[in-house]
């Protein structure tokens, strides 16, 4: 049975009651975060900005297969593959990703693309500061997404490790660039024509 409404004295209002919420809040622990000066650490598997990974010698893992683009529910990825040549080799196998773009105006950071990638070329970092006032700036290019060079790596394009093949790379037999490896002239590496770009 519902409680009957309490009777109040006509014309009486408690002047302190209105401040009860204020007083309670004054003694609570502050939730304000001093962002961006103090940044909160994300969970280890937080889905942030993507990264295109390299093999230990610096060659790229992406083979330009477009599976990530097909898996994306937001149509946020644009990939254009091309053939490697002996004069200009970006990945150990036959193909590489010549053009790679992710449109962060569309991406919902769901991670389906990284699940679809057969070579673990595509993973996600913990970086979350992706906001921008320009839609064009939210389209990240291959150059922005490609992982930096670590010790023992030489930037692509360059020759495959002597005596190794693509399978050896995936077996983990190549652990660094071969001595004397030099970067080849990068003639075809670059942005795709604007009219073919991912929609902003
Ligand atoms: S995280 Fe999701 S929405 Fe973003 S590019 Fe990958 S599949 Fe598309
Ligand atoms: S990132 Fe992975 S799935 Fe996407 S094109 Fe490259 S190899 Fe294929």
TrEMBL record:
<dbReference type="InterPro" id="IPR017896">
    <property type="entry name" value="4Fe4S_Fe-S-bd"/>
</dbReference>
<keyword id="KW-0677">Repeat</keyword>
<dbReference type="GO" id="GO:0005506">
    <property type="term" value="F:iron ion binding"/>
</dbReference>
<keyword id="KW-1003">Cell membrane</keyword>
<feature type="domain" description="4Fe-4S ferredoxin-type">
    <location>
        <begin position="98"/>
        <end position="127"/>
    </location>
</feature>
<feature type="binding site">
    <location>
        <position position="68"/>
    </location>
    <ligand>
        <name>[4Fe-4S] cluster 1</name>
    </ligand>
</feature>
<feature type="binding site">
    <location>
        <position position="113"/>
    </location>
    <ligand>
        <name>[4Fe-4S] cluster 2</name>
    </ligand>
</feature>
<dbReference type="Pfam" id="PF12838">
    <property type="entry name" value="Fer4_7"/>
</dbReference>
<feature type="binding site">
    <location>
        <position position="62"/>
    </location>
    <ligand>
        <name>[4Fe-4S] cluster 1</name>
    </ligand>
</feature>
<keyword id="KW-0472">Membrane</keyword>
<comment type="similarity">
    <text>Belongs to the complex I 23 kDa subunit family.</text>
</comment>
<keyword id="KW-0520">NAD</keyword>
<dbReference type="GO" id="GO:0048038">
    <property type="term" value="F:quinone binding"/>
</dbReference>
<keyword id="KW-0874">Quinone</keyword>
<comment type="subunit">
    <text>NDH-1 is composed of 14 different subunits. Subunits NuoA, H, J, K, L, M, N constitute the membrane sector of the complex.</text>
</comment>
<dbReference type="InterPro" id="IPR017900">
    <property type="entry name" value="4Fe4S_Fe_S_CS"/>
</dbReference>
<feature type="binding site">
    <location>
        <position position="117"/>
    </location>
    <ligand>
        <name>[4Fe-4S] cluster 1</name>
    </ligand>
</feature>
<feature type="binding site">
    <location>
        <position position="107"/>
    </location>
    <ligand>
        <name>[4Fe-4S] cluster 2</name>
    </ligand>
</feature>
<keyword id="KW-0560">Oxidoreductase</keyword>
<keyword id="KW-0411">Iron-sulfur</keyword>
<feature type="binding site">
    <location>
        <position position="65"/>
    </location>
    <ligand>
        <name>[4Fe-4S] cluster 1</name>
    </ligand>
</feature>
<keyword id="KW-0830">Ubiquinone</keyword>
<feature type="region of interest" description="Disordered">
    <location>
        <begin position="175"/>
        <end position="200"/>
    </location>
</feature>
<feature type="domain" description="4Fe-4S ferredoxin-type">
    <location>
        <begin position="52"/>
        <end position="82"/>
    </location>
</feature>
<feature type="binding site">
    <location>
        <position position="110"/>
    </location>
    <ligand>
        <name>[4Fe-4S] cluster 2</name>
    </ligand>
</feature>
<keyword id="KW-0479">Metal-binding</keyword>
<dbReference type="GO" id="GO:0050136">
    <property type="term" value="F:NADH dehydrogenase (quinone) (non-electrogenic) activity"/>
</dbReference>
<keyword id="KW-0408">Iron</keyword>
<feature type="binding site">
    <location>
        <position position="72"/>
    </location>
    <ligand>
        <name>[4Fe-4S] cluster 2</name>
    </ligand>
</feature>
<dbReference type="GO" id="GO:0051539">
    <property type="term" value="F:4 iron, 4 sulfur cluster binding"/>
</dbReference>
<keyword id="KW-1278">Translocase</keyword>
<dbReference type="GO" id="GO:0009060">
    <property type="term" value="P:aerobic respiration"/>
</dbReference>
<keyword id="KW-0004">4Fe-4S</keyword>
<dbReference type="InterPro" id="IPR010226">
    <property type="entry name" value="NADH_quinone_OxRdtase_chainI"/>
</dbReference>
<protein>
    <recommendedName>
        <fullName>NADH-quinone oxidoreductase subunit I</fullName>
        <ecNumber>7.1.1.-</ecNumber>
    </recommendedName>
</protein>
<comment type="function">
    <text>NDH-1 shuttles electrons from NADH, via FMN and iron-sulfur (Fe-S) centers, to quinones in the respiratory chain. The immediate electron acceptor for the enzyme in this species is believed to be ubiquinone. Couples the redox reaction to proton translocation (for every two electrons transferred, four hydrogen ions are translocated across the cytoplasmic membrane), and thus conserves the redox energy in a proton gradient.</text>
</comment>
<dbReference type="GO" id="GO:0005886">
    <property type="term" value="C:plasma membrane"/>
</dbReference>
């Amino acid at each position: 049975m519902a409680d009957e409404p309490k009777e109040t004295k006509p014309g009486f209002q408690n002047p302190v009651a209105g401040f009860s919420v204020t007083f309670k809040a004054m003694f609570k622990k502050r939730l304000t975060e001093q962002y961006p000066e103090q940044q909160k650490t994300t969970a280890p598997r937080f889905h942030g900005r993507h990264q295109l990974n390299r093999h230990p010698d610096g060659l790229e893992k992406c083979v330009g297969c477009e599976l990530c683009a097909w898996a994306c529910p937001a149509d946020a990825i644009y990939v254009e593959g091309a053939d490697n040549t002996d004069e200009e080799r970006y990945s150990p196998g036959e193909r590489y990703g010549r053009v790679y773009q992710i449109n962060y105006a569309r991406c919902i950071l769901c991670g389906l693309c990284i699940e679809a990638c057969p070579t673990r070329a595509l993973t996600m970092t913990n970086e979350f500061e992706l906001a921008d006032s320009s839609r064009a700036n939210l389209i990240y290019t291959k150059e922005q997404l490609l992982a930096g060079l670590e010790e023992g790596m030489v930037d692509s394009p360059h020759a495959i490790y002597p005596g190794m093949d693509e399978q050896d790379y995936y077996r983990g037999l190549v652990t660094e660039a071969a001595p004397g490896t030099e970067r080849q002239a990068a003639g075809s590496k670059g942005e795709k024509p604007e009219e073919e770009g991912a929609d902003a």
